[in-house]
Amino acid sequence: QDPTPGHVPPPQTKSRPPASPVSEMPKREREEATAQCDLSKAKVVGETKWLKLETLTYTDEKGVERGWDRCVRTTKTKEEASDGVLVITTLKNAESSSASSSASSSSSDQLILVKQFRPAINSYTLEFPAGLVDAGETDEEAALRELKEECGYVGIATGKSFPLPLSPGMSNESITAVTIEVDLALPENQNPIQKLDEGEFCQVVKLAKKTLLAELQRLASEGVQVACDLYCFAQGLALAQQG
Predict the structure, then answer these.
(1) Phi, psi of 11 (to 5 degrees)
(2) Is 66 helix (H, G, I), strand (E, B) or coil?
(3) Is 60 helix (H, G, I), strand (E, B) or coil?
(4) pLDDT per residue over 213-234, tens digit each?
(5) Quick one: which of 34, 39, 33 has its CA closest to 57?
(6) How much is the pLDDT for 10?
(7) pTM to 2 decimals?
(8) What pLDDT, on a 0 to 100 scale, did the predictor assign at position 152?
(9) pLDDT tens sequence across 169-191
(10) Which residues fall within 8 angstroms of residue 154, CB to CB, at 6 or more apart?
(11) Residue 201 contacts residue 111 (beta carbons within 8 Å)
(12) H or E stretch at 41
């Protein structure tokens, strides 16, 4: 039995000729064997205002029909579209943000992060700023809006990723990572004010890239759960520094 949490028994396995194990197939046939899922046949088995639980039926690489459960956001409009954005924000001129400082003076780049309570895991987390994309918004517009709401800063979007699945074993939720540069020397970023929604609480945390991994390890030892994407980002920076 497949131990994966999302696996469910197939609704009814259709009668098929016995399939040879993939390892026994000719090389060309193995390369062409692909799994398929007809999402139009998804059955909704539970739904709230924000989430749906669906049961899917798919065919694996051996031609066996199987079942799978997944969670879907009710706000998702297209299967291939990102549900939300993740904001990778770099703060420039962190040491020259006072009126008496020169905006050109050098400083180590920083990241802006948010600490917030997540009921689903009953814990505080440290994450990149993030949020859902509203109807009619581009990914960049959503990222700039979320940054202003959660952290109070304004910036310039400098790039974005393709849609990235968050937990493909359980959900079709995906996000687009948007990079934003914030110049702290600008007047509008001197005294940032959050514009949080009712019931939303975020604490802004600024950490230097150079010591990010060590700071995350420290916070984790204090009971803060570090988001997976943030840890991977920090690990990548640390590996790059090792050269």
Answers:
(1) -55, -40
(2) strand
(3) coil
(4) 999 999 999 999 999 999 999 9
(5) 39
(6) 53
(7) 0.81
(8) 96
(9) 999 999 999 999 999 999 999 99
(10) 144, 147, 148, 182, 186, 188, 189
(11) no
(12) none
Structure confidence at residue 15 (pLDDT): 46
Percentages helix, strand, coil for the chain, rounded to the nearest 5? Answer: 25, 35, 45
Distance CA 126, CA 35 (A): 36
pLDDT digit string, tens, across residues 157-167:
999 999 999 99
- How far is Cα 176 from Cα 140, in angstroms, rounded to an integer? 9
Q: Taking 80 as the threshold, does the pLDDT of residue 102 lie above it?
A: no
Beta carbons within 10 angstroms of residue 186's beta carbon:
15
Taking Cα atoms as reference points, which of 197, 200, 217 lies closest to residue 116? Answer: 200
174-183 vs 84-92, strand pairing mode: parallel
- As beta bridge partners, residue 160 has 178
Task: Cite the beta strand spans of the chain per DSSP E.
Answer: 7-8, 36-37, 43-47, 51-59, 65-73, 84-92, 110-118, 123-127, 130-132, 156-160, 164-165, 174-183, 203-208, 225-226
φ, ψ (nearest 5 deg) of residue 54: -120, 150
Residue 99: its pLDDT value, please? 39
What is the C-alpha to C-alpha distance for residues 212 and 206, in angstroms, rounded to an integer? 10
| Whether the predicted pLDDT of 153 surpasses 60 | yes
Distance of CA 69 to the CA centre of its chain: 20
CA angle 42, 66, 5 (to 5 degrees): 85
CA–CA distance, 154 with 189 (Å, rounded to integer): 7
Residues with Cβ within 8 Å of residue 149, at least 6 apart in sequence: 131, 194, 195, 196, 197
Return the SS3 of 46: strand
